Amino acid sequence: MVADPALRNMRVAMVTGGSRGIGLAVCKRLLEDGFCVAILGTRPAEQVEPEMQELRLSGPVRYTRGDLGDRSDRERFL
Questions:
Q1: What is the pLDDT of residues 10-42, one digit of tens each?
Q2: d(CA 9, CA 19)
Q3: Which residue, among 14, 16, 52, has the nearest Cα to 35 in the 3D structure?
C-alpha cells in the first residue's frame, strides 16, 4: 500500500546499483521522466546518503541495502 496518495498513480522504476556510475545516471534520467525510483544496492545507506539527497531533489527515491542474489533481500526490496 502506498502511504502517499499522490504517489499512487506514478510509475515506479527499480534500479540495481543506482547509487553511482551509470546506475546513478539512469536514476537521474528516470526521475526527470517522472518515475519514482527504488534502488537496491550493496553499500550501507549512510554511504549513499549524499547521492540519495541529490536524487530526492528531483523526485521520490527509496534506497534499500541488499544483494539481488539473496532471495530475502529481493523480497524485501519488492
A1: 899 999 999 999 999 999 999 999 999 999 999
A2: 25
A3: 14
CA within 13 Å, CB half, 40: 17
CA pair distance 59, 33, nearest whole angstrom: 10
Run of H or E including 31: helix 21-32
Does residue 68 carry a pLDDT above 60? yes
The span from the CA of 27 to the CA of 4, in Å, is: 21
DSSP 70: S
Of 76, 67, 70, the residue nearest 16 (C-alpha): 67
pTM attached to this predicted model:
0.83
User: pLDDT at position 1, please?
Assistant: 40
**Going by C-beta distance under 8 Å and a sequence separation of 6 or more, which residues neighbour residue 35?**
10, 11, 12, 13, 59
